[in-house]
Design a protein that fits this description.
Elements lengths: L1 H34 L1 E9 L2 E5 L5 E3 L5 E3 L2 E5 L4 E6 L4 E4 L4 E10 L4 E16 L2 H4 L3 E6 L2 E5 L3 E7 L2 E8 L1 E6 L4 E5 L6 E4 L5 E4 L4 H4 L23 E6 L6 E4 L9 H7 L9 H7 L3 E4 L1 E9 L5 E10 L4 E11 L2 E11 L4 E10 L2 E12 L4 E10 L6 E9 L1
Parallel strand pairs: 9-10
Antiparallel strand pairs: 1-4, 1-6, 2-3, 2-5, 5-8, 6-7, 7-9, 8-9, 9-12, 10-11, 11-14, 12-13, 13-16, 14-15, 16-17, 18-19, 18-21, 20-22, 21-28, 22-23, 23-24, 24-25, 25-26, 26-27, 27-28
Length: 401
């Protein structure tokens, strides 16, 4: 009897030991995987998939899906994707695009700050984050050469055997396959160019049509029905509507602040003189600051909000949004976000570069579009604390110069 008793205890001990061993292994694997996180999906419309280049495992990406250093990301027809990277940068892909993320590391504590991506086909746009700003190496490989980044905001379009390049802010140096250097940007004579398969360079004074179009050609019906982009807590919260109206109570389940289709459809309306938004943009020059808030509706998960403000600088000469900020306060502190982006004909493609709530780091998305010609911008945002996503806020706004 004692032998059976001791044997039983021995088996239990071995089972526990084996379980502990496997848990440690899984923990090490999880830690290794976490260290290779390159970014997070903030928008996925249509078919957006990721393939692990080591084992070809396929994953369907949706909002908040992580992307990794070993990923090949592919978008299908009528599709679009945006990613917030670990250094605060923003990457946007248009339909029928394929990119490889072979390296993306930003860890100041470990002294790691570098990124290497490859555009195989399609349209890619980047607003660089802290890797570049901290002096790290940021490289984008293309069929015609490798791009070294000296600036903030650029785009690449690979169509057949031709590669189109556009710089909206800062500069890039392209080390072409014949070892020559093509420099484009604000301090160069040209900011736009194309390079064919033979290496012939054509410099341009305006962004080529291939690069200007296609980042927003997804109809609302093409949105992935499984996407959680419209997630919002089904609770009663406080909303501040306009600056001179008292807070009111309403069910946030009825607020679909992330449904961007209404914003984009509004932007396609004719201007007051009958011209389309695209035609009005072609005629507009200079830099205009939109900071007069004419309408807003803000929701916070921790109660009432106050002191909402937003400003957005539009550079019509370079078709870009070089900078903007929004802020407001709730019972736990001030929400703040800094963002940038570019004009994409029928909408503004924006990315948050930094966000916080009180002393806590935050993340999220922001979107907008021209309305009433170019006289105002309507849009919205969705923010949440990084370490405590249940603390969140979202809202809509209308601003004028």
């Amino acid at each position: 009897m004692k032998t059976n008793k001791y044997l039983s205890r021995f088996k239990v001990f071995n089972t526990r030991l084996l379980f502990t061993f496997f848990m440690c292994v899984l923990g090490l694997q999880s830690s290794a995987l976490a260290s290779d996180v390159a970014g997070k999906t903030i928008l996925a419309k249509g078919t957006v998939e990721s393939f692990n280049v080591d084992n070809n495992e396929k994953r369907k990406l949706k909002r908040r899906s992580q992307i990794f250093t070993v990923d090949k990301i592919v978008t299908g027809d009528k599709s679009k994707a945006q990613f917030s990277m670990t250094d605060g940068g923003l990457i946007t892909l248009k339909a029928n695009t394929e990119i490889l993320i072979t390296n993306y590391k930003y860890s100041p504590e470990a002294g790691e700050s570098s990124a290497t991506l490859e555009v195989v086909n399609g349209g890619f746009r980047s607003i660089s984050g802290l890797i570049k700003k901290s002096g790290g190496d940021y490289q984008v490989k293309t069929p015609v050469g490798s791009i070294g980044i000296r600036g903030t905001h650029f785009a690449v379009e690979v169509v057949g055997g031709e590669t189109f390049l556009a710089v909206y802010s800062g500069n890039i140096d392209v080390a072409l396959n014949d070892q020559s250097i093509l420099s484009l940007g604000s301090s160069e004579d040209f900011a736009f160019a194309s390079v064919n398969a033979q290496g012939q360079v054509t410099r341009m004074t305006q962004a080529p049509a291939a690069i200007s179009l296609g980042f927003s050609d997804v109809a609302p019906s093409d949105v992935d029905e499984e996407s959680d982009i419209n997630e919002s807590p089904e609770t009663t919260q406080t909303v501040l509507v306009d600056s001179d109206v008292s807070p009111i109570e309403l069910d946030t389940a009825d607020i679909d602040i992330n449904d961007q289709s209404d914003v984009y459809n509004e932007s396609e309306q004719q201007g007051i003189d009958g011209s389309s938004v695209a035609e009005l943009l072609a005629e507009r020059t200079g830099v205009i600051d939109y900071n007069n808030v004419t309408q807003n509706a803000i929701v916070s998960s921790v109660g009432g909000v106050s002191d909402f403000s937003i400003n957005m600088t539009i550079d019509f000469d370079n078709a870009s949004v070089p900078g903007g900020t929004l802020s407001f306060s709730d019972s736990e502190g001030e929400w703040f976000a800094a963002y940038s982006g570019l004009i994409n004909i029928d909408q503004l493609d924006l990315g948050i570069n930094f966000a916080s709530h009180g002393d806590n780091r935050a993340e999220g998305i922001i979107f907008g579009a021209f309305s009433n010609g170019l006289d105002e911008i309507i849009g919205g945002f969705d923010l949440q604390e990084v370490n405590n996503p249940s603390v969140n806020a979202d809202g809509s706004f209308t601003i004028r110069p």
